[in-house]
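S.,

Sequence below, as promised.
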Amino acid sequence: MTIDQCNPFVRRAKEFSLLHSYIKAYSVDCRLIYFTKGEGSVEFNHTTYPVFKDTALLFQSGTMYQIQTNNFISYIPINFDYTQNFTYRTVAFKMQKEESEHKIQPLENVEFTDFPILNQVLYIPNAEFIFSDVHKIVSEKQELKIGHQAYCSSIMKKIICKILRSSNAFSNSADEKTERILSYIHKNYATDINNEEIASQINYHPYYVNKLFYSYTGMTIHQYLNHYRLTMAAHFLSTGSEPINQICYAVGFQSPAHFAMNFKKKFGISPKDYRNMYHED
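The prediction came back faster than expected:
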C-alpha cells in the first residue's frame, strides 16, 4: 500500500486523563496518541519513551504498549484504520489487556511500500504541528455534523502526511543511533555512565550525540537518564520491599540525599511517602 492509497477511517477521538496509573494494552485498530498535559512514559517492545505535553505516538493495529504515569497525564487517542474496510465497526473497541483470553485480532495489517517508516512505532516528541488538526478531529467526533466521517478522514490523512514530512528528524540513521543510545541507557542506567561513554558506542562525537538525542526525544541525555532512573526507582518502590537506600544505589544515584531531592522534585513526594501510598495495607 502507498500513502496515496491511504483513506483513513476514524473510529474515535476523545481526551482521557490518568492519575498514578499503569496501563498495559493491546491495540485492535491503529492509534495516534497525542499527549496534552503532564508526563509519564510509554513502552513498546522493551523500549521506553518519555512522554509529556505535545508528544505524539503513531502505530499500527496489533501493537502492545504500556502507558505509565506516577503523577498525572492527559492524552487524546485517535482510533483509526488506514483503509475503509471496517467502516461497519463505528464504535471504539474496549481496551484489550495482554492477558485477555478472548483477545480480538487486529483489524488490518497494512504494509506501506513507499514510506516503510509507517510500519513501525513512530515517536514524535515535538508534535505541536499537528495539535490543531487533532483537536479538529475531536470536535468533529463530538458534534457529528453532516459529512464528519469524510472530514475526519481527510484531516487524518493530512496529519499522517505532516508526520512523514517531519520524518527527516527520524531518518533511518538517526533513528538507529538514537535507539542504540536508549538501549544502552536502559541496560546501564545503574552505572556511572556519561555522554563520552555513550558516544563511543555509536562512534559519534559527544556534542553531536547529545544534539541528536535531543532532537529525537526533546531531552538531553542527562535529563533522560535522570528521568529513567527515577521512573525505575518509582517502579521498585511500588512493587518491591527493598530498603530505599538500596534502591537509590541500584538505579544509579550516588547519595540518598541527592536521590530523595530529585525524586521529590519529579513526583512531588518523598520516596518513603511514595512507597507508603502503594503499601498502605
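The chain has a mean pLDDT of 86.

Coffee later?
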